[in-house]
Amino acid sequence: MGEREVGHEEFLAPGRDETQARVVHRALRHLADGSAGEVLREMAREVLSGRLGLNEAVRVGAYAEALGERTRPLQEAWERGPARGPQGPEATPPGGR
């Protein structure tokens, strides 16, 4: 990134432990590489630089919209329920065909 970056400690909050803070920090670093699009890249860089807090960032219209778009497939999958694959309850037992 080339500029000052806040550490994971920036994301410690009541009810959030150090492991969770590290996960948030790692996710922001991933977004900052641009793999999720330019808007989320900008948001992540603003947060990681300390120019914008995470709570503030998710309230910015363009950032909130981009986050919603990226998480919509996850939300839809969650609402559909667990996947039914070979390991699911309807799996045919060995030799059962």
Give an overview in words:
The radius of gyration is 19 Å and the shape is globular. Helix content is 53%, strand content 0%. The N and C termini lie far apart (56 Å). It is built from four helices and no strands. Helix 1 crosses helix 2 (38-49). With 97 residues, it is mainly alpha-helical.
- State the assembly state of the protein chains: single chain
Question: What is the overall number of helices?
Answer: 4
Query: What distance separates the N and C termini?
Result: 56 Å
Residue stretches low in confidence (pLDDT < 50, at least 5 long) are none
Q: How much of the sequence is in beta strands? A: under 5%
Structural class: mainly alpha
- The helix/strand series, from N terminus to C terminus, equals HHHH
Q: Report the average pLDDT across residues.
A: 85
Helix coverage percent: 40-55%
Number of strands: 0
Radius of gyration over C-alpha positions, nearest whole angstrom: 19 Å
Choose one word for the global shape. globular
Biggest beta-sheet profile: none
